[in-house]
Amino acid sequence: MDTMLMLKALILGFIEGLTEFLPISSTGHLIVFGSLLDFHSKGKVFEIAIQLGAVLAVVFEYRSRFTNVILNFGRDRAVNRFVVNLAIAFVPAAVMGVLFSSVIKGYLFNPISVAMALVIGGFIILWVEKRAATRPAKVLTVEDMRPRDALVVGVAQICALIPGTSRSGSTIMGGMLWGLERKVATEFSFFLAVPMMIAATFYDIIKHRDLFTLADAGLIAIGFVAAFVAGLVAVKALLRFVSRKNYVPFAYYRIVFGAIILITWLFDWVKWTS
User: Fold this and answer.
1) Among 35, 151, 170, 210, which residue's CB has the most CB atoms within a 10 Å radius?
2) Higher per-residue pLDDT: 14 or 274
3) Known PANTHER family for this protein (predicted)?
4) How confident is the model at residue 215 (pLDDT cuts 50, 70, 90)?
5) 1 near 213, Cβ under 8 Å?
């Protein structure tokens, strides 16, 4: 296996893990840095597959919660409600993804589309946080969430199909707009990532199975492990951060990062490729 390709896979794995749960778009960052590193996988299989590594970091961090769900599903009312809420939130984006993922990948998986989504999303986060500062949250724990709360988060997640929008950003901001407390929206976004990313990963792997080679498997393994390690760090850090701060710094990061990409494109300083 080419050493440079291995290094690129390692870098992109760390980027995926660090950005998957932050409201700054992991897919967008993979597209941008993939362009900078001249790393392009067939059918974007690598980028999709390594997301599973980051998602398993959530499973590990909340292993007692998921173990409780497995052992008590069907017997415990609170567990049943939690699973139903995840199922409800899962459906909207899953259906839209199956219907439109090919079109979206064909037209929007490029650095310029990502940059525009980053900037627009940054301003939306600023607006949501300003609004949240004047309106007390109505849902204070994940256990208090009702099916309609989960449905709102699930509908908001549809926006994440546009690269650069951010799955976590869409679900967290959608939840906060609806009245979920910031940490509740963040944790539910973590939990929702598990079925969503597992389904997306295996759907893409099966759909593009003819594109895989032995070399692809090695690169995916490297990216997968890197994403898992970085994901653990990101989940722990974000939970500590949102317990004391808001998402405004991430909004400014999105706006500046997106603006830099657009400026370098407009002045032809960087040859951005999809």
Assistant:
1) 170
2) 14
3) UNDECAPRENYL-DIPHOSPHATASE (PTHR30622)
4) low
5) no
Alpha helices by DSSP H, the chain: 3-19, 26-37, 45-49, 51-61, 63-72, 77-108, 111-132, 147-157, 167-178, 182-207, 214-242, 248-266
Q: How many residues does the chain have?
A: 274
3-class SS string, 177-233: HHCECHHHHHHHHHHHHHHHHHHHHHHHHHHCHHHCCHHHHHHHHHHHHHHHHHHHH
Q: Which letter, b or e, does each residue of 197-234 get, where b requires 16 or more Cβ atoms within 10 Å of its Cβ?
A: beebbeebbeebeeeeeeebeebbebbbbbbbbbbbeb
Q: Does residue 273 fall inside a structural domain? A: no
DSSP SS3 for 96: helix
| Phi (first) and psi of residue 180, to 5 degrees | -75, 140
Residue range of the domain that includes 129: 3-267
Give the total number of structural domains in the chain: 1
Would you say residue 22 lies in a domain?
Answer: yes
Q: What is the pTM of this model?
A: 0.91
For the chain, what percent of residues have pLDDT higher than 90? Answer: 73
